[in-house]
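Supplementary Methods S3. Input chains for the assembly prediction are listed below.
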Amino acid sequence: MKVAVQREDFDLGAEVRAISRDAKVGAVASFVGLVRDVRMTLEHYPGMTENAIGKIVEEAARRWQVMECTVIHRYGNLQPNDQIVLVAVASAHRGDAFAACEFIMDYLKTRAPFWKKEHGPAGAAWVEARSSDDEAAERWKREPQ
Amino acid sequence: MKVKVLFFASLRESLGRPHEELELPANVNTVGTLREHLRARGGEWASVFAPNRPVRAAVNQDMVQAGAAIKPGDEVAFFPPVTGG
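Predicted structure tokens for the full assembly:
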């Protein structure tokens, strides 16, 4: 399992190849989040961020078969279309890979200490948290697995 | 007791500091009472920590609720709801 919080960009292909080497891996599901529309600055809480993501990955591995997993989240200054976050999960079958990938992403949105500040034409403003993100994370508590 | 208090994002900007070391009175021993203690400073502190403002907290880098206890030497962080991903 790999968790990285970094300024630098990442290479989706290289990260997927790195978790696909075991012959028992039959499925890799990956998600890449991009900067939409405007330039932004991402702040985080060094130390807590890595711990929080690590716990989310552990929880996913308890619920589904996760053979390998990589989560990379960037911080600092990002431009429109830049990659922000990568979640990639390797498993024997697609069901586990899809579910674990979505779960990690939904929990990361509400539990990992990152904050976006957008630099739009009208000036800089902190992005408000969305209740739909809370709801997306909450549904994993209700749905039978 | 002494604790280290950290502020992030809009809280850090509004309060004009990323962190401070604090000596707390005996009756301030939970995240909720610390929030009240800071709010009582008035000005920006009163508005940032107003009861209707959505402020999240962590103790020693674990997200917690207002009832969470604080011990000497703890690192307590206050921040807005997270917006990563």
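Residues 94-111 of chain A form the longest helix (18 residues). The longest strand of chain A covers residues 83-91.
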